Amino acid sequence: MFGILRPCARHSCPSVHEAWRAHLCGLCLTLRDRHGQLARMATNYDGLILSVLTEAQSRAQPRTQPRTGGGPNRRTAGPCALRGFRSAEVVRSDDRGARLAAVVSLALAAGKIRDHASDGDGIAARRVAGVPMRATAAAWASAARRGAEAIGFDTTVLTEVSARQALLEASPGRALLDVTEPTETAVAAAFAHTAVLAGRPGNAESLREAGRFFGRIAHVIDAVEDLAEDRARGAYNPLDATGTSPAQARRVCEEALHGLRLAVRDLDLEERHLVEALLCGETRRAVDRAFGTRAHGAACSTRHAPAGESPTAPSGAPPDGPPEPLGRPPGVPPGIALTAAAGAAIFLTCGLYRPPWSTYRSAPWHDRCFCDRCDCCPDCSGCCDGCSACSDCCSGDGCCGDGCCCGDGCCCDCGS
Fold first, then answer.
1. Closest-CA residue to 217 (of 253, 188, 184, 264)
2. Quick check: pTM over 0.70?
3. How far is CA 258 from CA 209, 213, 268, 279, in A?
4. Residue 391: exposed, middle, or buried by beta-carbon count in 10 A (0-12, 13-18, 19+)?
5. Fewer CB near the last or first residue (10 Å), C or N of the chain?
6. Which helix (H) or strand (E) holds 23?
7. Angle formed at CA 20 by CA 46 and CA 323, multiple of 5 degrees
8. Contacts (Cβ under 8 Å, ≥6 apart) of 231
C-alpha cells in the first residue's frame, strides 16, 4: 500500500482510527469483490479519502451512534491477517464512495506501472519479465474505466496525467507548480465527484479546491522523498528540474496546507471529524515526515520506551534519522530475484512477512504491519481532561490539526 494518509494506531483518537480502518478495509474488499483478488494490490491510503468524503456528505448519523462509527453502509468482514485475524465493520463494496475510491486506485496503480515501463525503471520495463505487469496495468485501466462509467466518473482526467506529465518534464524552464498541475487537476476531479455521488453539488467547488491543494502536497512530498534516489540514478526529479530547493518546496507545502484547511472548512458535511483528521491532521504529519521535522525511528523509540529505561534509536538507524528502508539488507544485497520476491511478499502481506535481512524481522506484528505502523504523531493522551476542554486540542483556525481526543474517548469535533 502507498499514500501519505496513515493515522497512527496508538496515538490518534480511537474512533477516528476505527473509522479510517473501516474505509481502508472497505476499499481493499471492494477491489476484491469488483475487480478480483489481484486488484487488492492497488489499495492505497490516499484513495480511501474519496470514500470518506462521500460518506461524510451523504449520511446523517443518529445521535445514538458514535460520531465516526458504524452505519447503514457497513458490513462485518471476516478475520484478516492484516487486522490480527480479527473481524471488523467495514464499508460495503456496493457503496458509491468505495466504488469511486476503487476505480481511482486502479487507474493510478495502472498509471504508475506504465510510468515505470516508459522510464525504463524496474521489472515493468523489462522486455520479457515485464510483460505480466504491463498486461496487469492494461487490465486495471480497462476495469477502472468500466467501473467509473457505472458511477458517472470520467477516468480520462486520470489516464491523461502520465502523458501530460511527460510533456511537462520534457519542457525546460518550468516552475514547480507547472509540473504539479496534472496531478492537482486529477485529484481535484476525483474530490469534486464525491459531491455528485452524495447529492451535494454545492460542495463541488470547495472539494475541487481541496483536491488541487492535496494533489500538490502529495506530488511535492513524493519528489522530496525520491530526491536522493533520483539523483543517484540520474533520473528526473521535479525539484532539481525546476531549481526548487527543499526549503522552497516546504513553503509550497505549507501554503497548500493552509489552503486545504480553508477549503475543508467551507464544506457542508454531515460528519466532519474524520475528514478533518485526515485532510488537516494527517496531511500535516505527512509534510513533517517528508521534510524531517520529526525523526521517525527516534520519536517512536522515545514514545514506546518502557518505564525506567532510557529511549534508544531502533536497530540499524542513526540516532537522529529514520531507519533503513523496509526490506533493504544491512550488508550486501541478496540479489535482484530474491529481493524482488521478498518485496512482493512484504507487499502482499502488508508488511507482516519480513525477510531475514530486514531490520523489522523480529519486530512485533503491529510494528511490521503497514496498517498499524506508528508514524510518530504527537502523543495525544492527556491533552484534554474532558469534553469541555476539547477546544484546547484544536488549532487556531478551528481545524483538528493534531487529531487529539478527550480522555473519556470523546473526540474533539472542531469547526463542526
1. 253
2. yes
3. 12, 9, 19, 11
4. exposed
5. C
6. helix 14-35
7. 65
8. 237, 240
